[in-house]
Specification:
Length: 300
C-alpha cells in the first residue's frame, strides 16, 4: 500500500471548484499541507478541484474486470495503492449490532452465505467468502466498518450508503470515533432522510437528491447546511443552467456519467462514480495548466 504522502504527491502531480467553505458544527480547522497523517478535508478537496475536472469514485468500493469483490478489504486496498481517492461503500447492520460492508439484503448471490444479512451474526458472517464482480469466489470475507474506517483514514474519502439494516446513529458515531468526519459524504435519497442525517451529523457532508433551486431551498429549510450539500445528479442529462446555479453556490455535483459521455461530464461533475475506477485516472479532465492552482489551493 502506498503511503499517504505518495497518494497526495500523485494527486498534485496530476493537477479550485471555487469558493466552497469547510464549515463544521465543531471548532472549524484549516487544513494544513497534506502529510502522511493529514490529508485535506473533503470540503477543501472538493473546493480546490478545477471546474474542468472530476474525481473518480469507485462504485461499491471496487472496479470491474479486476478480480476483486465489491465492498471488500482487498478492493479498497487496491484503490488506495492505485491512487483512487473516492469510494462509494454500502453499510449493512448484522443481528448483533456489528456493521459491515455489503450491498444486498441477502447473502446468496454475492457470497457463500445464505439467508438475510440483517438476521446473521458476525460470528457466522465472518466465515463467508465473497464473490468478485465476475461471480467467482475470492479470498475476501466480509469486512467490519470499523476496519474500513481504520484502513481509509488519511487515505480514502468515502461515500457512505446506508442499507436498510444499518443504524444511522451507530454508523455516525463510528465515523466520529475514527476521526473521519471530514473524509465522508453521507448518502441520502429523500428530504426526510437528509433531514435526519443533517440533524445527527451536522458536521458531515451529505449527498442530496435535488433537481432544482426549489429542492435546494427545501433542503435548507429542512436543516441541511448549504456548505454541506453535494447534489446527486446521476446519469443526467445535466441542465447547464442548474449546474451554473450549483457552481455559484459552491455546491459540488456527484454524478454517474455514461461511459461514452464521461468527457462531457467532467465539467458538471465534481465526483464521477464509475464501475471501472481502476481503468481511470484518479482525476479526470485535469489539465497541466490547472496543477499550480490546485496545489496552491490545497496548501492554503
Amino acid at each position: 500500500m502506498k503511503k499517504t504522502t505518495l497518494l497526495i504527491a500523485m494527486l498534485l502531480a496530476t493537477g479550485c471548484k471555487d469558493n466552497q467553505s469547510a464549515t463544521v458544527s465543531e471548532k472549524p480547522t484549516e487544513a494544513a499541507p497534506a502529510t502522511q497523517a493529514d490529508i485535506p478535508s473533503i470540503h477543501r478537496q472538493l473546493a480546490c478541484l478545477p471546474k474542468s475536472a472530476a474525481f473518480v469514485a469507485a462504485h461499491r468500493g471496487t472496479s470491474k474486470k479486476a478480480n476483486l469483490a465489491e465492498n471488500s478489504g482487498s478492493s479498497l486496498k487496491k484503490l488506495i495503492k492505485e491512487g483512487i481517492m473516492f469510494a462509494e461503500i454500502d453499510v449493512a447492520g448484522l443481528s448483533d449490532g456489528t456493521h459491515i460492508l455489503f450491498h444486498d439484503g441477502v447473502w446468496d448471490e454475492k457470497s457463500t452465505g445464505k439467508g438475510t444479512v440483517a438476521s446473521t451474526s458476525w460470528g457466522k458472517a465472518q466465515n463467508f467468502l465473497l464473490k468478485d464482480t465476475d461471480g467467482d469466489f475470492s479470498a475476501d470475507r466480509p469486512i467490519k466498518l470499523d476496519d474500513v474506517l481504520a484502513l481509509s483514514k488519511d487515505q480514502l474519502y468515502l461515500e457512505v450508503d446506508f442499507k436498510s439494516s444499518a443504524k444511522y446513529k451507530t454508523v455516525i458515531q463510528m465515523i466520529r470515533d475514527a476521526d473521519m468526519s471530514d473524509q465522508v459524504i453521507l448518502i441520502s435519497y429523500n428530504i426526510k432522510q437528509a433531514r435526519r442525517l443533517a440533524k445527527l451529523a451536522p458536521e458531515m457532508m451529505l449527498s442530496v437528491g435535488a433537481k432544482s433551486e426549489g429542492d435546494i431551498a427545501d433542503l435548507k429549510s429542512a436543516g441541511v447546511k448549504l456548505e454541506n450539500m453535494a447534489v446527486w445528479l446521476g446519469k443526467g442529462p445535466y441542465d447547464q443552467g442548474y449546474i451554473a446555479y450549483l457552481d455559484e453556490n459552491s455546491i459540488p455535483v456527484l454524478a454517474w456519467p455514461r461511459e461514452r459521455d464521461r468527457k462531457k461530464s467532467w465539467g458538471p461533475a465534481t465526483v464521477a462514480v464509475t464501475d471501472y475506477a481502476l481503468q481511470k485516472k484518479p482525476i479526470e479532465g485535469l489539465s497541466r495548466s490547472d496543477k499550480v492552482n490546485y496545489e496552491t489551493c490545497l496548501n492554503k
